[in-house]
Every structure is written in structure tokens, then in C-alpha cells.
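Task card 7
Instruction: Convert sequence to C-alpha cells.
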Amino acid sequence: MKCVQLSDCNCIFHGKVIEPHQVDGNCACINGRITCETTTPTTITSTTSTTEPTTTSTIPSTTSTTEGTSPTTTTTTTSTTEPTTTSTIPSTTEVSCENGEWSKWVNKFHPTLQNRGDKEILDDIRCPNTNDVFSKIQCEPLAHLKKLEDNVTCDLENGFICSEPTSLDNLMCRDYKIRVCCSSISTTTPTSTTTPTSTTTPTSTTTPTSTTTPTSTTTPTSSTTPTSTTTPISTTTPTSTTTPTSTTTPTFITTPTSTTTPISTTTPTSTATPTSTTTPTSTTTPTSTTTPTFTTTPTSTTTPTSTATPNCSCNNIDNPECMWTEDCSIKTCVNGEPKINRTCNSTKPECDREEDLVSYTNECGCESMECNCECKVYGDPHYVTFDNVHYSFYKNCTYILVKEVIPKHNFGVEIDNYICTEDKSCPKAIIISYNKFKITVSTLDQLTLTINNRTESIPYNLNGFDIVKLSHTSLQVYIPKIRTKITARRNRFVISIPEQLFLDNTEGQCGSCTRKKIGGCRRPDGTVEKSTCCPTAALDWKVPDTTKPHCAKDPTNVTCPTPTTAPLTTSPPGPCCKLCELLHQKPFEKCNKNDMETYDKTCEDDCHSTNICSVVCANLEAAASECQGNCVEWRSYTNGLCDLDTCDGILTYQPCQMETDDRCENNKVILGQSLSKPIEGCFCPKGMKSSNNDTCVHTCCVDHSGRQRNNGEKWQHFSDNCTILECFSSSVKENKLHCKNQGNCPEPQRKWDEHHCCYECVPTGRCETIEYNNTIKKDNCIAEVEVTRCKGRCDSSSEFDFITDRMSHDCKCCEEVEQEERKVDLICNEGPNKSYSYIYIKKCKCENCEPKM
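Output:
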């Protein structure tokens, strides 16, 4: 007998063995006992409630008179209410979905013993209407057990996440489902609010031409085309600290009155040069001249998200026809019904370089184009900054590559260098900081990923990151919210950030993402140095690293060296140097010659200073990626010096792959992503998928023990005998067995099926067929066969019959009632095999025996 902790004891539930902490419906095995609870489901909701932001504006209202009186000017100002957000609200009642409808429940991911957490992402949810927005999220477990508590987050930013349990009382997260409230009205929180500050200084002068009272007709109108003798003079002095990309147009509604009220509509457009137009509306015909002077000074700080004008709605009786912008669409009320015109802006921006133009899906679901800034680090190492300054840097500490000048997105990148030759360094890892997460990607020996000092497997799709392997030798970290992409492979890193979010707001060894080319490098104190001083200025971006105590003594604020023409001390050229000649030969003949000259210089530098072919090859690799629009198959020209020796097993090298491998996740196939330009690396053969352990498989079917299953293969669930799993090419299908007319009898009387799921009750001693093996021996010939016999008890009785005046015997015998003839080949010691026939009993039954007299 083995003694175990109470928490490790199994349970028996409805004839099934339930593992510790395993959930079955509304019951769970806890401390050796089945605990069942029927409770009102406790759901987790995250609601984003929004108070419509309004623009602070000043509307002068002038009442005209016919006598020599001064017009009266009134100023009406509305205020801006900040939106509020309430998150993670547990509820035990039905959660309402105001002004919308709930989506279908989604339950794509399931916790397992290997991956004990759970997650559900919003990308898997679709609303009935494409114009709907997510205004609320509801997360709910499939099994509601009070004693099992999960550590979960549920919000509209990250979806649902259940962290792996740390307590032994809970083996894994419960399985959760999520849904969202799809609203057709403006319920989303604007990412920012533009508040123009207006100062109105009307100066009115009325000069009547007559002392008599003329007859005037006032016809108020809401038209935007003025008919008036009023001549406003508008002066706008905008102050903009960013470059917004959208336009906010506050609309003011004209209400008819008995007096003449010129209504001015101020329309600041948040562009590089915002303008403001003041348009009075009036049809007054007095013989007077009013000349108000307006001065409006809007201050735009961020890009606003378009929201509906509060006074414009289709149920507004006073204004049944109006227009507003909401949810990336232009909406118009026609006869009390909203008409939607969804538009996508296909404007193509002008970038400094054609290769910096990239496409992305914006917040409206439209394919848009934008300019990116790209920084590269390769070789031992060489840098190409965001503004295309080239320099080399050979120190082996940890340095800031990218840092925000004014923190807006909580994003930064550092690089960890190491000594790869006697006096030169190479990049071995890149450290990405975003919000509260620290991601380290190491490429020194093999690709490794750590997040907050914890090793993670690839792919990783949580906490706002999408990390995938581009090949088995390179990976990509993508941060969708800030559209930032970092690719990593041995001796080479590339950082790509959008101009729209980071223009003129980065510093570090990668320089500034800017269009104001400075042709040099910037120190942390803002000092700009010439490009020849970039290696010296790069010293100042060192960061403390406890693993490298020697770096604390490395100097900073070093004066730029005086340019010299003295030749550099180099070692004799080795066999790797011939590789640099390829940059001017056939493989690279379609590439830009000026770009190739730059890489030729760094290549020659690396070959003379390191004589390490892998470092030299990094230059050719960087040059090939720079050859925009062309696939360069260059490794076959290197006589094996630059071969990728990490293509293990059945992986094959592909020089120009346009999509990543399909991969397996939770027994399902995740299709590979299409790439904007070709990449090289080690990939799975056609028709195979990449598994979690970096091998190639034909199917994604894996059982609980990690055993690979083939297409069409069936096996039993490890903890549920009544669930049969079947492997298909793209997923694993569960088939549930259902037991019919199952009685209740003691275990010894239960006759189980082959899966030990269903049984029938068989009384002890019942006449039945018993199978056993027997050996047949005939004339030195032998064979082992399966035979049957009838065995069991049958009812019998004896009694005195008063009619016949003798004993009556009623006898039942366990006899065969169904049989067949079978043949078997007997194996003989001498001579050929012999065929032998025997009777195989298929069914037994209690039959009348010959009565005893």
C-alpha cells in the first residue's frame, strides 16, 4: 500500500474514475470527494461606458434691430466630460447588452495538463453587422464551482486570460467561453479628445441709413450657405504638437427663433495646418452693416476618434435630417432612418524610400498604407539607423537601441552584445520593453524567448504580443497596438516602427525616426555629432547590466576623435573575404549598386577584423534583404561557407519563402501567414506542419501523453472512457458514447463494453458463452485456437404432481443454441499442414433437459 496526500486521491463518480481536481460537468474531485454545486453562473464582464465628448466652442449670437442700437452678443460654451471605464465586474444575474445584441459564445482554446491556462481572443469573434463595435465583454466558465478560483483578466483590450494556477488545490484553469456586446451606436471610448480653445471678440457697428422703422422679413435657415450682409473676419492661429490623421467636425444645429440669429459654425481640421472657418447664417434684410471680428485658437494635441454629435439623431423631432461621423462611417438620417456610408481612405503617403511604404489594417478595418522607419543591426555589429546613417560599433555591453523621447507608448529596445573575436563584438540578444513586459530574444546558439525572465514557447500570442517563427532559424515579434515589428536571427536584428506613432520621438543607437535628416547621431543630452563620430556617441547609450560588471567602467561622454587617414590594422585576408566579392556578381546584379557598395565596405571590414565566416555571411544576408522586390539566392554561391547548418532532420532550406509554415496549436492547424517580401530559412516539407517541439508532422493530432497520432486513428480520452478521439488532418474530433437502458447493479454483475464506458447487468451464474484458448494436437500436428463453451446456472425444480401422483422434474440445461463450423490449419512437424474443422459456440441458453423419471 502506498500513502499519498488527500489532495492526490482519485474519486469514483457514476462508475468512472475521476482524477484529482478534474472537473466533470458541475462536479469536481477535490480531496478524494466528489463536490457538486448548482449555482447561478458567476460571470466576469468588462464594460466600456462612454460619455460623448463635446467640443468646447464659442457661438456668437447677434440680435439685429432697425434703430441705432448696439447688437447683443452672447457666448455659449459646452464642456468636455472625460469618458470613464469600469472593468472586471463579477455578476450573478443576466448581463444586459444595451443598444445592441450579444455575439455568439466563443470557446476556441481549452486548458490541458501541458497548457494549464486558458485564453480566448477577440479576433475570433464576429458581430452580425460589420459596422458594429464591441462595447462590453462577458467571460464565463463552463463549470461553475465556487471552490475553484481562477486568476483571470477579462477586458476589451486583451480578451480573456486565465493564468496557470500556482496552488496545488487547483490543477488547471476551468474552461471559459466569452462573448461581446455588439452595439450599432457610438459606445467606444475615443482614444483622445481634441479640445479647441476658442476666444471670440465680436466688434459690432450698426449704422442705420434711416431713422424710420423699415419692414424686415426674417427667414431663419440651417443652410451652410450664408445670405447676409454680415462680413466676418476670421483669424486662426493653430498650435499643433502632433500630426493628427483624422478630422473632427463639430456640427451645431440652428434652431429657428423670432429674432435674427447668425449662427457660426467653427470647423477646425486637425491636419498639419489646421484651419478654421466661421460661417454666419442669416437672411435678414435690415439696412445695417455688422462687422464682427472672431479670433479662434484651437490647440490640437492628439488624434481624435470620430464620435457622434449629441444633438444629431434620427429621433430628433426638431432636426429629422442630419449627418454625423461614427464608427468610421458617415451616417445620415433620411426620413427618420439612419443611412450608413462606410468609406476607406486609400491615400498613399509619400515615404523617403519606397521600401518604407507598408500596408496595415487600421482601426476601421480598412487596408491602409503608411511609412515605416527601419533600423538594422548586423555583423560585428554594423548599424543602419532609422534615418539611414551607417556606422560600426564594437563594444560588448548592453545599449539602448530605441527609446521614446516623450513616453507615449511605453516602448523601448535594448541590444546585448558579446565578444565574438579578440577585439570585436557581435549582437547576441535583443531586449524589448512594452508596457509591463520585458521580452528577450536570444539568437546566440538557438532561438530562445523569455518574457519577464520566464522561458516561453513559440508561438506566443498573449498580452498584446504576436510572436511567431518565420522559419526555424528566425522569429518575429509583432505588437499590433503600436504596429511595431522586430525580426531576429543569428547576428542580425531589424526593428520596424510606424512614422505615424513615432515620428521625431525616438532616440538611441538607432537614431531618430524623422524626415529631418541630420546625417549623424545624437547623444542622450541632445548633442548632434557627425556620422564619423557615431561609434563614439553610441557609447553614451549604455545601460546598467549586472551580468557585465566590467561595463560600469566603460567611458561615456567621450570627445569625438580627429579624423585620420591612417590605415587600420587588420589581419591577413582569409577565405571568408572572397565572399564579399559576391556583392558585385550575379546573385546581386538586380540590386541597387549604391546599397551594395555600403555592404561591401562592412563586409570587407568584418572579414579582415574577424575572419569568421558566419559574421561575414551576415553582411550578405543583410544585403539580400535590402534588395527590395527581388529574391536573391546567394548561399549556393558560397561553396558551403554560408550554408544554414541548423536545418535539422527533415527541415529543408528555402531561399525565397513567401509564407511561414502551418503550425499546430491545441490539436488544430494554424495556417501560416503571408509575407510582404520573401524570406529564407529552414522550413517543413510541403504538406507538413510545424509542431510545438520544432519538428515537422503530417497531422496536428497529439494525445495526452504527447504521442503523435495519424490521420484517421482513434483513441480513448485519458480521463473519460466515454469520449473517443479521432484524428483528422486539421483537428481532433471528439465522439461521445451514449449508454442506453443502463441499469444499476453491483460491479461483479457488470459486463463492460470494450471502452469500459457502458455495461449491462448480468446476474452471477447466468448461462453464457465463455471464451478460452485451447491447443489442438492431431498426428504430430498442432495449432492454438480460440474456442467457447456454455457455462452457467439454469433454473430447475422438482415437485409432487397430484394429478399424476408422481414426482415432476423441470430441468433447464445451459446448452448451445447457435453455433458455426470453423477451420484451422494445423502445423505439422513432418509434411504439409493439415486443415481441421471444429464447432464454435456463438450463443448459449437455458433449454429443457431430458426429464428424469
